[in-house]
Input
Amino acid sequence: MTMIFKTLALFIATAAIAVGGEWGTDWEAAKAQAKKENKPIFINFTGTDWCGWCIKLEKEVFSKKAFKDYAKENLVLMEVDFPRKKKLPADVVAQNKKLDKEYKIEGYPTLYLLDAEGKKLSEDVGYREGGPEAYVKHLKELLAKAKTDA
Output
């Protein structure tokens, strides 16, 4: 019975894609969704179970209704996690290491707005004070700037 639960948990973890304002973990699925829905990818390089600023950002912004509502309509959310306590599937670990190297991540949290091909539309968004409303306002400003720069 335990093996069934472990297999199910592994399936859920590897099949995770961003749905309805939730964070996905599959890079190829995130790019496909962004292309299909014509939305930017908001990629979050994080340490969900140890990084203080990452945890603060989750509690103050990402878990709040104002952010979730905006994200559901306007973004594809992609989480690239580097946990210390929880174990991720080997394919997710390999994918995350590749993305970390590709985007030259130097610290956590690091967050970018990307197009459907993975090209940066913004510099690191990072942690910002002011709660979800201020964070959403900043994301809107970055996306507007990206459109005028294109």
